[in-house]
């Protein structure tokens, strides 16, 4: 398994946002912290585990939490951003609002 650099991980997040019709959080420091978490998780586990989630121990057990997580596809349209606020809907980003806490959709562990 080869690791991912910050530049590769940043490109990954940009490509996800573009493919989904989303935008990245405009707070560069905040966004970079999440990119660092994604890169660290990839280099540790071999996949882009969402940085706001803990591992369940395997890729199969974590599949719902691999970026972009299953929950983001529900959260972005409903709340304007995903749980960790890396990805924003275009409308939410244009509104100038700041992301805030949203309910965690995951099942109880």
Can you give the helix content as a percent range?
40-55%
* Oligomer description: single chain
Strand order of the largest sheet: 1-2
Quickly count the helices: 5
The biggest beta sheet is recorded as: 2 strands, antiparallel
Write up this protein.
The protein is mainly alpha-helical. The protein has a single domain (6-92), classed as Ferredoxin thioredoxin reductase catalytic beta subunit (Ferredoxin Thioredoxin Reductase, Alpha-Beta Complex). It is built from 5 helices and 2 strands, in the order H-E-H-H-H-E-H. It has helices at 6-20, 28-45, 59-62, 72-79, 90-95; strands at residues 22-24, 87-89. A two-stranded antiparallel sheet has the order 1-2. It is globular, with a radius of gyration of 13 Å. The protein starts with 5 loop residues before the first helix and ends in a 14-residue tail after the last helix.
Explain briefly what this protein structure is:
By secondary structure, the protein is mostly helical. The protein is 47% helix and 6% strand.
Please describe the structure with a list of short key phrases separated by commas or semicolons.
single chain, 109 residues, mainly alpha, Ferredoxin Thioredoxin Reductase, two-stranded antiparallel sheet, 2 strands, globular
What's the topology here?
Layout: H1 6-20, E1 22-24, H2 28-45, H3 59-62, H4 72-79, E2 87-89, H5 90-95
Antiparallel strand pairs: 1-2
């Amino acid at each position: 398994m080869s690791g991912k650099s910050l530049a590769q991980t940043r490109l990954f997040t940009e490509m996800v946002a573009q493919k989904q019709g989303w935008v990245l959080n405009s707070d560069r420091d905040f966004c970079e912290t999440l990119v660092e978490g994604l890169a660290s998780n990839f280099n540790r586990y071999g996949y882009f585990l969402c940085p706001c989630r803990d591992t369940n121990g395997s890729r199969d057990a974590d599949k719902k939490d691999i970026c972009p997580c299953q929950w983001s596809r529900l959260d972005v349209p409903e709340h304007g951003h995903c749980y960790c606020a890396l990805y924003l809907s275009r409308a939410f980003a244009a509104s100038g609002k700041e992301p805030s806490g949203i309910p965690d959709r995951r099942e109880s562990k």
